[in-house]
Write a sequence for this structure.
């Protein structure tokens, strides 16, 4: 695709802008910011990937992944600002999920150990882990705040912090992972996944594209469940002190 | 003539603050074992904070609390909370049935409450055994309170802390609960510390009373002190001039 053709696609940005202006939706500023950011960010990534692929150096791959983890942490930490030490809990979770998934993929030789595979898959894994982290933290902090009575009840009857927070933890893990599981049930029926569509457009065999997409879907399932569970079990102890008392908690929006 | 009681809970110069507000100031005094002591006083006096300190849900900033002569911090928290039971005005129920709620304290210890024992507890608090499988969302305020007390009794606490458990109940339910608490006290020698805003209740059921105001204990003694308070502040409170 030439840059001229690409610039014509801006028509798909002009349509929402015109509609927003006409109907007074107030989305113009956000739409323009999102468009400019996506152009700049993706172009930078494109050139960066070109360089990294050409260099074929392991250090660059690690640096790219660390950059992704840093950006994902920065994005997700705001949702869990009321949880002590949330930044490091997120970093540990993202690193664990990345090491686990790449470990399986490369260890079992499912995907080749080249930057062309490692970087895009890491992007999908960390990006998905970030969204899951945000969903989980949002739900978990709300659950803790609205169910303080229940938490105190369990503690007052001689329960441990883990028992006191159990229902809230399970509800939050379920709520954050359900969208991933549900979307897999209808995938292919309503929409074709982005990566698969990209491969087909680029001329790949559709069945090959489906196989690769299935791999990604299964990977994201693990990512979703592991992220929520890990964040939950890393976060709940910080809500209590060593006398098994619930520390005062207020959700920060 | 009654023999001198030993002390169930002793407060030595206990203070507590939260978010910069001084909730309790230098509280000292003791709750006699096997007796019913009521805590009365206007809203914001620090009564609920005081009983949460006894159950170990919170810890004092300074001072010392002794439970049966042993510093509260020497108890393992879960052991302390089973010994010192707490029933709150909110009577929070988990979803599910009455049996699920009664079973909860045992489940927390990895055990199951036998159904026969659950029925006995219901009988004890004045509810028919058919209530066992009722859903908690269908219970009335009085029934919830009774189930909440029964649930606290599953742990067979030596000390029972009650926070305004009759304040939202009708007169008949209030009398039922008063009779129940007196029965628990007499049958098992359980020490009761009972927060109430109802001075008649304090006079009827309490052996002793603490009058608290603005985080301080203003007067303590036998419940009859409420008939003839010594301090002007308590006189005004008893007359209903301070709420």
């Amino acid at each position: 695709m030439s840059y001229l053709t690409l610039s014509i696609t801006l028509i798909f940005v002009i349509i929402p802008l015109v509609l927003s202006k006409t109907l007074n939706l107030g989305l113009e500023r956000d739409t323009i910011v999102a468009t400019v950011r996506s152009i700049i960010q993706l172009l930078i990534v494109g050139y960066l990937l070109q360089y990294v692929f050409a260099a074929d150096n392991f250090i660059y791959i690690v640096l790219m992944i660390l950059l992704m983890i840093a950006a994902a942490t920065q994005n997700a930490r705001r949702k869990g600002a009321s949880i002590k030490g949330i930044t490091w809990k997120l970093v540990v979770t993202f690193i664990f999920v990345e090491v686990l998934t790449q470990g399986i993929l490369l260890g079992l030789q499912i995907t080749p150990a080249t930057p062309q595979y490692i970087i895009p898959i890491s992007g999908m894994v960390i990006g998905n882990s970030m969204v899951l982290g945000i969903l989980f933290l949002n739900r978990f902090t709300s659950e803790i705040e609205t169910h303080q009575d229940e938490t105190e009840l369990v503690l007052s009857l001689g329960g441990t912090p883990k028992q006191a927070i159990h229902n809230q933890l399970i509800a939050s893990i379920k709520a954050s992972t359900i969208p991933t599981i549900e979307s897999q049930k209808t995938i292919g029926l309503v929409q074709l996944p982005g990566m698969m569509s990209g491969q087909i457009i680029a001329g790949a065999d559709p069945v090959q594209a489906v196989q690769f997409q299935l791999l990604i879907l299964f990977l994201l399932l693990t990512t979703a469940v592991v992220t929520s569970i890990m964040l939950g079990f890393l976060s709940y102890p910080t809500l209590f002190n060593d006398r098994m008392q619930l520390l005062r908690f207020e959700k920060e929006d | 003539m009654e023999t001198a009681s030993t002390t169930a809970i002793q407060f030595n110069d206990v203070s507590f603050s939260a978010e910069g507000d001084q909730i309790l100031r230098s509280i000292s005094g003791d709750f006699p074992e096997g007796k019913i002591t009521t805590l009365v006083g206007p809203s914001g006096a620090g009564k609920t904070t005081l009983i949460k300190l006894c159950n170990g849900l919170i810890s004092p900033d300074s001072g010392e609390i002794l439970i049966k002569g042993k510093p509260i911090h020497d108890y393992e928290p879960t052991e302390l909370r089973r010994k010192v039971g707490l029933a709150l005005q909110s009577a929070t129920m988990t979803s599910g049935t009455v049996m699920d709620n009664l079973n909860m304290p045992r489940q927390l210890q990895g055990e199951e409450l036998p159904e026969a024992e659950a029925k006995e507890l219901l009988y004890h608090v004045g509810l028919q055994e058919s209530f066992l499988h009722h859903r908690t969302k269908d219970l009335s305020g009085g029934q919830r309170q009774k189930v909440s007390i029964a649930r606290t009794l599953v742990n067979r606490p030596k000390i029972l802390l009650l926070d305004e458990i009759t304040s939202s109940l009708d007169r008949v339910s209030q009398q039922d609960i008063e009779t129940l608490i007196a029965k628990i006290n007499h049958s098992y020698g359980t020490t009761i510390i009972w927060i109430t805003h109802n001075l008649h209740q304090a006079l009827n059921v309490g052996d002793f009373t603490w009058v608290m105001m603005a985080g301080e204990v203003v007067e303590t003694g036998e419940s009859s002190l409420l008939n003839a308070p010594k301090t002007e502040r308590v006189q005004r409170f008893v007359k209903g001039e301070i709420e």
In short: The interface with chain B takes residues 149-150, 152-160, 163, 167, 243-246, 248 of chain A (CB under 8 Å).
